[in-house]
Amino acid sequence: MMKNILLYIFFTINIVFTKGDIMSSDFYNINFKNILGEEKSFKEFSGKKILIVNVASYCGYTRQYKELQKLQDSHGDKLQVVAFPCNDFGSQEPGSDSQIAQFCESNYSIKFPVMSKINIRKKPIHPVYKWLTNSDLNGWNDSKPKWNFYKYLIDENGNLIKSFGSNTSPLSSEIIQSL
């Protein structure tokens, strides 16, 4: 009887820890293209926290680009900001990748990685946002972005740890304290 209980505990603990490892490794294996069309994955940012933000050029929150760059500049040793342009919310990102890149450079001098424009709510939903919004994949979250500049924080091991609404400033104490 005691042997069966110990075996049950061992397998239960093993399954819980294995599930976390699978979710983390799945995150680092998600592929996407940067704004220049080059294939990328989150592996290049492993060991740092990652703040994923869906962005748009013609949104009331677009000024957050400046704050995102300040956040990257001041915490780049432990954080990587990654932006994913999206036109799903109010058609506020109608431009091509080259137009988005030009906008980011000329208006905000963005140095953090900006990726190729993706779908978040409209099909086909990009694998990054499938992972971020499916608790079976990320461990706890099913909430989808409600608007542009919604933020997700990933820890150094590839685990989703928090999400922040569009109205949360990238320089807010809530985000800074989570780093």
Quick recap:
The protein has helices spanning 2-28, 64-75, 97-108, 127-132, 135-138, 173-178, and strands at 31-33, 39-41, 49-55, 79-85, 151-154, 160-164.
Overview of the structural elements:
- With 179 residues, this protein is α+β, with helices and mostly antiparallel strands.
- It has one domain (2-178): Glutaredoxin, CATH 3.40.30.
- 37% of the residues lie in helices and 16% in strands.
- It contains 6 helices and 6 strands; from the N terminus they run αβββαβαααββα.
- The longest helix is centred in the N-terminal third of the chain and has 27 residues, at 2-28.
- The protein is globular and about 35 Å long.
- 28% of the residues are buried.
- The model is unreliable at 5-22 (pLDDT under 50).
What key phrases describe this protein's structure?
179 residues; four-stranded mixed sheet; Glutaredoxin; alpha+beta; 6 helices; two-stranded antiparallel sheet
Topology:
Elements lengths: L1 H27 L2 E3 L5 E3 L7 E7 L8 H12 L3 E7 L11 H12 L18 H6 L2 H4 L12 E4 L5 E5 L8 H6 L1
Parallel strand pairs: 3-4
Antiparallel strand pairs: 1-2, 3-5, 5-6
